[in-house]
Structures are given as C-alpha cells and as structure tokens.
Write a sequence for this structure.
C-alpha cells in the first residue's frame, strides 16, 4: 500500500537534527573564542578534507564558484585563453571561466555518463583548433585564441572518463581543472595507472562546493580547492585572502573568498559521516536500479561506467513526458528536480558565444528528458518503494509500459 507521507526531494533537516549536539558545540567554540575567520577550525578541516580526497593540499574558500575561479587564476592561464567544458552543468562552471577573464568553449557529453565525451573533446582539439608554430600554442581556429584548459565536470556524483581526457590534455598541453562540486568521494579507475583515484586528485586542481545540499554541505556557503601542487596551493591561499600571505603585505590583488571558521568546524563534524552517507546513497541508487528493472524501457536509470564509483549526488532518470511525471509525483507528495532544464549554450547569458540549437545534440536531447528523483542518505526503503511505485503507475498509465 502506498503511504500518504510527503517525501521531500532532499531532507536537510534530519542530518542536522541527528548531529545537533556536535554542531552546537562548534558554534559555542566559535562564540567562546571569537574565532570567526581563519584559525584552527579552518586548518583542521582543510587537513581532514585533503586526507579524505587523498590530496596533498586543500584550500577552503567561500563557494564552489570561487574555488573554480581561484583555481583558474592561480594556474596562471593566459587572460583571454579558451577553457573547454560541457554545456550540461550548473552555470557556476562557466561563470568562473568568464570571471577569471577566460573564454568558454563547449564540447558535448556522453549519452551514458552525462559527463564530457572524450571523443568530442578530441574532435574539437583536432578539427576546430590548430597548432600555431610561431606562437607555440594551440589556437582555436574560429576565435584565434589560445586554448589553455579543460574542465571535466564530475556531474551527479560520477567522474568523467579522466584517462582519455588527461591524455588529450597532455598531448595538447592543456591545464586540467576538475569541477568536483558534485562528487565528494567519487572514484575513478585509471586503467592507465591500474589504480582507483579520488575525484579532486586527477587534474592540476579541483573545485568542491559545500552548498548545503551537496554530499558534504555546509550550513551556509562554502567551497574548497584540492591540489597536489604546493606552489598552486600557496597562491590560492593568497588569492582567497586579498593577495596577502602576511597581514597587510599584498603581493597581488586578491579577493575576499575565505571559508568561515564556523562553517569549517561544521564541515569537519559532517565530514566524519561522509563515507557512510555516500555508501547509503550508493546502496539506494542500486536499489532504485533494481526496482526499476521491470519498467521495460519506460525509464532510463543512471548508468555507472565500470571505471567510476559514483557517490550519487543526484539520481537522475530519463522519461518521455517528464513534466507530467513531475506533476504526478508532486500530487503524491514526492519532490523532484531538473538538473538542468536549459543547456548552457542555449541560455540568454551565453548568446554572445554564438552557439545554436543542434550544436550539442546529446545535451539538448537529455535536457528535455531528465528528472532527478529524491536521493539523500536518510531516504527510507518505504519512501523509496512509494517513489518507485508512483513512477511505475505513471509509466503504465501515460506511457503504456507493461508492468
Ligand atoms: C557542477 C557545479 N559546479 C559548480 C558549482 C558551484 O558551487 P557553489 O554553489 O558552492 O558556488 C556547483 C554548485 O551548485 C555545481 O553543482
């Protein structure tokens, strides 16, 4: 029997209630010491998060967007250079590129993984760019700009196919900055090196977001950059703090982009639970896969490539009439989302880039079909059964799949 209890798209209340005593202790410590900016709580979190990611350094900043922006700035990418990414991501990926004084170029995603398709990246680098021997640079033919970096986005908690992307980056001398904002703890099996690697350790640097709904979320804004490059970490520490390594000695112009101490303290508490929460997300995702196995093609569930161990930030399915499914589920009290409904190359903000409909067919097709179902570590099996049963009811009635 289907229960009438409402099922939120995301439950952010329960984990904070469960951890309330520890979280309150952090707040008390901050009030007692007036330690609001920098200090031991930030240091402790940075060390713990670097360890969690298997990275040498972590620099806490005030958002994932700034993490990306600061990584581009610290990497010393030549102003005006082209940065290649995907049109199927949150706009922060590309805002950071533009706001670092760089130019956005898109390549399409792979239909199975929703992450950057290395073949499309190769096609772009080989056919739309040429090596300029005089400048010693790879140049985008259309814009005559140097192509400087690539940003694979580990979307929905699954890593991009990094071996192929890193090979191309090496061949074409491109900096790789991972957008790991949705992939805390996700892993990638590098066939080349024969080892599993964590998201955040494969590029020159990686950006993480601690927006509250992320797998590791702050109780407000937060972000971090991970890197194995000491000089880069040092530069990013300066960039986030007005360009100073020592108070009032400004070697460069920087930003006010620090991670608050109290957020860092809360993140340290929550980080202790992240591995368990990620395991719970994975188990729920696999249970969704199984429960939908008899939906006879009426629904496309996420495919986890053999080379990725995803952390299911989102559980994104594809159906033919997704707005109708959303309404049907909403009537039953089930929350859903769409990540993301309009590809970036079709957003008004990027009209000036000159892309048109049809330029990225995979992105455009899936943007009209995707629906994110409830996914959070505390989702119960009863709730999940209700979501699946309601979805199947819809599919049988509207799309005509046999049960
Ligand atoms: C893929 C991706 N990149 C970047 C960001 C930016 O992170 P923030 O919201 O912390 O600035 C987000 C978060 O929403 C994201 O999902």
């Amino acid at each position: 029997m289907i229960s009438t209890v409402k099922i939120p798209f995301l439950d952010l209340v329960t984990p904070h209630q469960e951890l309330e005593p520890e979280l309150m202790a952090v707040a008390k410590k901050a009030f007692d010491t007036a330690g609001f900016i920098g200090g031991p709580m930030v240091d402790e979190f940075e060390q713990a998060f670097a360890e969690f990611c298997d990275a040498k350094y972590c620099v806490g900043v005030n958002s994932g967007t700034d993490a990306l922006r600061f990584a581009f700035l610290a990497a010393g990418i030549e102003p005006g250079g082209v940065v290649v990414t995907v049109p199927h991501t949150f706009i922060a990926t590309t805002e950071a590129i533009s706001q670092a004084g760089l130019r956005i170029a898109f390549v399409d995603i792979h239909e199975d993984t929703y992450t950057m398709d290395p073949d499309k990246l190769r096609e772009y680098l080989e056919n739309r760019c040429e090596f300029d021997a005089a400048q010693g640079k790879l140049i985008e033919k259309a814009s005559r700009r140097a192509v400087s970096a690539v940003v694979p986005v580990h979307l929905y908690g699954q890593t991009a196919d990094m071996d192929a992307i890193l090979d191309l980056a090496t061949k074409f001398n491109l900096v790789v900055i991972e957008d790991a904002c949705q992939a805390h703890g996700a892993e990638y099996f590098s066939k080349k090196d024969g080892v599993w690697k964590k998201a955040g350790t494969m590029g020159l640097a990686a950006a993480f977001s601690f927006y509250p709904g992320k797998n590791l979320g702050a109780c407000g804004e937060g972000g971090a950059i991970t890197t194995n490059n000491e000089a880069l970490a040092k530069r990013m520490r300066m960039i986030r703090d007005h360009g100073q390594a020592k108070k009032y000695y400004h070697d460069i112009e920087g930003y006010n982009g620090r991670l608050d101490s109290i957020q860092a303290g809360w993140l340290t508490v929550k980080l202790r639970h992240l591995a368990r929460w990620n395991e719970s997300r994975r188990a729920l995702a696999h249970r969704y896969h199984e429960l939908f196995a008899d939906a006879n093609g009426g629904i496309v569930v996420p495919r986890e490539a053999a080379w990725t161990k995803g952390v299911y930030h989102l559980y994104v399915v594809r159906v033919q009439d997704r707005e109708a499914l959303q309404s049907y589920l909403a009537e039953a009290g089930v929350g859903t989302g769409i990540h993301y409904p309009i590809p970036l190359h079709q957003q008004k903000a990027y009209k000036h880039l000159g892309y048109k409909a049809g330029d990225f067919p995979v992105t455009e097709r899936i943007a009209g079909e995707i629906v994110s179902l409830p996914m959070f570590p505390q989702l119960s099996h009863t709730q999940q059964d209700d979501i699946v049963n309601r979805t199947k009811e819809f599919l049988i009635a509207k799309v005509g799949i046999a049960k």
Notes: The first strand starts at residue 57 and ends at 61. The chain has a mean pLDDT of 96. The longest helix spans residues 261-291.
